[in-house]
Write a structure and sequence with these properties.
Number of strands: 0
Radius of gyration: 12 Å
Shape: globular
Order of helices and strands: HHHHHH
Structural class: mainly alpha
Oligomer: single chain
Strand content: under 5%
Distance between the termini: 25 Å
Helix content: 55-70%
């Protein structure tokens, strides 16, 4: 399963670490990637909880580029 490979490859942690990047397009794609990785996949969601994903994604709600969070919400 691709989602399991992403979880084993620490994709959640990598995406969360890059959410503060200067590129709005990268932040947008990272949030979309996170949503796809943990969609109906409890193990990946647990990785997000462990890595404080909710706190890191919360900061995107005030992102100056509306497109960053528009597709995620």
């Amino acid at each position: 399963m691709l989602q399991d490979a992403c979880r084993q490859g620490s994709v959640v942690a990598i995406c969360l670490d890059l959410l503060s990047d200067q590129s709005p397009q990268l932040r947008q794609w990272l949030s979309l990637c996170l949503g796809k990785v943990w969609s109906n996949f409890d193990s990946a969601r647990w990785n997000g909880v462990r890595d404080n994903a909710h706190e890191k994604l919360y900061t995107l709600l005030d992102d100056p580029q509306a497109e960053v969070i528009h597709d995620f919400v």
